[in-house]
Amino acid sequence: MKICEGRVAIVTGAGRGVGRAYALMLAAQGAKVVVNDLGSTAAGEGADLSPAQQVVDEITKAGGVAVVDGTDISDFEGAKGMINNTIARFGKLDVLVNNAGILRDRMMVNMTEDDWDSVIKVHLKGTFAPCHHAANYWRAQSKAGNQIDARIINTTSASGLFGNIGQANYAAAKAGIASFSIVIARELARIGVTVNCIGPRAETRMTEGLREKTEEEILRRDPEWIAALVTWLASPASKDITGRVIEAWGFGYSVAEGWTHGPITEATRDPLEVEQGLRHIINASRFNAGIERDMWLNP
């Protein structure tokens, strides 16, 4: 049984890496897929539609249905056109997977304004813009009396959830996407749209060379481990799951529980009285969660 039979999905950044794996698995499970990819370098430079076309060719050769879309999803009107063109071509939209991204890694003191602006624009605005236009389509459909069973699946990262040196721009964008997803999940629940956020750990061109990896890690970083989760979340079976941030790779899936209220001390209006209580609750609290692998190997 194909769990996404008849559904129409957009996957941004689907020409390579995890986005490619999402598009292929969604199509294999019966979805019609819009393969969006500007085809830029990992740093966001240039454009080339051939990676997206290769994915479409692979899908159609296997008997599926897919089309290329070269929209810059960080362009507000461009994102609107992508949503509208999908609906015009296939008659509807059921699933939006926001995956496109770039890297401009530098220590913060060496980061240029363009390094910051480009990464924030592609990741954060490039998630907001498609979500905005897709949600307005679903809201109009709901107001017209149509039953909606739609999905938004956004992309965060371990860097955004836990912090990683040299990625202040990327981490800020990815943390923003996680919070954005939780908020809009609450806003869109009433019209039948679920919103979840995936934190993938995969071996792609964006992670190559960051550090040495064991053979086991390379295997467990195959994008198909993540694609299976995304495809299930895109299906009708996941309609009761929303507002979740889920880390995913071959070592397992984990719900990221986010910020929680820790130890509390009494407040004061006197700055000279702050230290004792504050030091007490800091010493009583846990350290911030990290991106270490130990928890996955010994859960």
Summed up, what is this model?
This protein is α/β, with parallel strands linked by helices and 299 residues long. 43% of the residues lie in helices and 14% in strands.
What does this protein look like?
The structure is a single chain. This protein is an alpha/beta fold. It is built from ten helices and eight strands. It has an eight-stranded mixed beta sheet, sandwiched between helices. The model has no long low-confidence stretch (mean pLDDT 93). Helix 2 links the parallel strand 2 (32-36) and strand 3.
Architecture, CATH level 2? 3-Layer(aba) Sandwich
Spatial strand order of the main sheet:
3-2-1-4-5-6-7-8
The largest pleated sheet is described as: 8 strands, mixed
The CATH class is identified as Alpha Beta
List keywords for this structure.
43% helix; Rossmann fold; 299 residues; alpha/beta
SSE map:
Blueprint: E1 8-12, H1 17-28, E2 32-36, H2 50-61, E3 65-69, H3 76-90, E4 95-97, H4 113-143, E5 150-155, H5 158-162, H6 168-188, E6 193-200, H7 215-220, H8 224-234, E7 245-249, E8 252-255, H9 274-284, H10 294-297
Parallel strand pairs: 1-2, 1-4, 2-3, 4-5, 5-6, 6-7
Antiparallel strand pairs: 7-8
Helix pairs in contact: 1-2, 1-8, 3-4, 4-6
